[in-house]
User: Fold these one by one.
Assistant:
Number 1:
Amino acid sequence: SSLSSLAIPQLGQVFVTLRTAGKLSMLSARTPITRCLPTAVRRLHSAQRSSLVAKGSQQTDEMAATTVKPTLPPEYTTPKIWTSKADPEARTGNQPTAGSRFDKDMPVGEHELQLYSLGTPNGQKVTILLEELIDAGKLKDYDAWRIQFGNGEQFSSGFVNVNPNSKIPALADHSESPPLHVWESNNILLYLAEKYEAFWPSDRKEVIEARNWLFWQAGGAPFMGGGFGHFYKYAPIHIEYAIDRYSMETKRQLDVLNKHLADKTYVAGEQLTISDIAIFTWVRCLTEFYHAEEFLQLAEYKHVKRWSDALAQRPAFKRGLRVNGFGEDSLWERHSAEDFDKPDAHLEPKKDT
């Protein structure tokens, strides 16, 4: 007989009830419903079917009632439709909408490459590579402008023109006309590596391996940063479930990297690539930004530590970590190599009146 009047959840409850009663042995998690349905229908009497459906519906309602999740804060209930509590007129802070919030042009220096960034792990990736390109004789110089989140500069019309996603880093290459806009940190790394033919393999197999690890980092960063970093370091309250979930994944990623580096100097072999740079800044972030070395027992990952310590000693890495960074050793902006020797380079430059 036809079961067209039964909803899918009701059918599922019928099957579960049958199996519990010992009437249906073939149903398993791997058995498609289309295979079970004919047998189930033949085994059901018309009167029993109505009774089971009614009972299944009642059991489903009871299960829903007993699986209500606790909330934080306790008075919170999940709405049917989410709405933002953010001020739609705010100049700073996240919004559920994109686009510019105020008019402001981005500054342009004298060099072909104009970087708009901040010394976060994603921003550090690009400045490290730019400094490595200078040391390799591939790049003469570049301008690095600081984007101040506190002022909402990533939502200005000028920045949004370079990166519609309003995230740092963003790069404008003025060797092209009109300037070529490049955004997403790993995409910028790949663009620069290909443009200057440096820090990227030429062998096809090595290219694939380098890409594996470049995209591995991009895929894992949200768990390490927005996940672990946020809930462990920056969230207003500590939530055990969230911290456990993202600590587990962060340590798993570290173990993947540690095992891979056991017999390698760099992640893609014996050559430094942009994949090393991309991964390095986020591994470093666990100690320098999140201060989680003891919590995550980072010393256990001996091969990661050996690799990370070696990269940190490279002059270009040291300089790149200072650009648009924080603290007295940082550079607020960078426009020439001489900026590294200025005693007040960490201070915001005075604007002309």
Note: The beta strands are 113-117, 143-146, 170-173, 180-183.
Number 2:
Amino acid sequence: MAHAHKGKHGKKGAKRPEEDSDVNAEEIVKAAETAVAARAAVLQAESDAELQAKRDRKAAIRAKGLASLPGARKGGDMMAAASGRIKPSEDDPLYDEALDSGGAAGGMSPSDEQRLARAEAAACRAEELAQFKRRVEDILTEFFVSHDIDDTVASLRALHPPALRPEIAKRILLLSLDRSDTDRELASRLLSACYGEVLTMLHISKGFNMLFELGSDMEKDSPDAIRTLARFLARAVVDEVLPPAFLMDPDVEAAGGPVVEEARSLLSAPHAAARMEHVWGAAAAASVVELKEQVHLAVEELFDTGSVVEFERCVRDLASPSFHHEVVKRAIVVAVGREDRERRLAAEALKHLGPAGVGLISETQGERGIRRVLAQKADLALDTPAAPALVDELVAAATAAGLAAPAADAPAGAS
């Protein structure tokens, strides 16, 4: 049934129904998809460019003669406008009387509607990604102030959807390019801490590949980007959050170019693993080396004096909650090679420091320390044949003390 618009469209000279069919539905779909794509681009633009981007998009819509679609500025209304369910307002700055009735009467085929729905979905995904990026940057900005790795990992773990997690690895690296060596050391530790908790090797490899795609754009903001990213890449391999085979992948080599080449050079040097612990300079890396030595001395003092209270004081003096996993690992590993007395002291000390005691060591740190011990179980058995059984006993005691969930004893590659 032909439908005549009221008001202006009821006057002499109104378009006949057969003229309405001249408006090509295919052109409507293509123009609508163009508008949605423009909207997705605007969402990712800087705030100072958003207004101009909107004006450019309006001009493009006007040029295609589709001003009768109010949904050109609002993706959710496009389908309704194109199928005639919404009557365009004459107050709309993009309103065009000549095309109004034709756009409404022309209609869309089911395939056209599906294409437009896919375009709208793409715009929604772009908006979701933009919001995800902003949230990650907020968390990482806070991290470089607080240096709290546990809290940062927990915040990143809560972000959804998980499919966007490669963006986390990318942002950790990207935001560190123009920071101090100390902050870069923190970034390397955070990337390692996220592995197994938030990120997989696939997430991390995709994060590096996303940075490779930026190419020379990174160097505009950070002239030393290639050298810095190569060191992050080599450190990630040493920290076992990326496999060495990643650097041998032809696609990675082609995308990463000089970054991959320099990372290979760093890893082929003598004592590469030890060098990578100091890759951000003596000042930044000294804290890691010194912390390990202090933890070892504290464990030895525990076994010499038998004082759990003194051991607690030593751990508190470390003033590094993000390194408490080393305390758990070192206490168990050293105890495995000692006598029953030392193993009882280790179990007692971990229970005292864990959530069931004074709560100094968190469950997150406890789980990470236990995973590191389990990953070394076979190596420990070379010196102490009974090590596997002894490790299981100490891990069970630590788990009972709240330092790990019952299912947290799956081996992991971190060390």
Note: The radius of gyration is 30 Å.
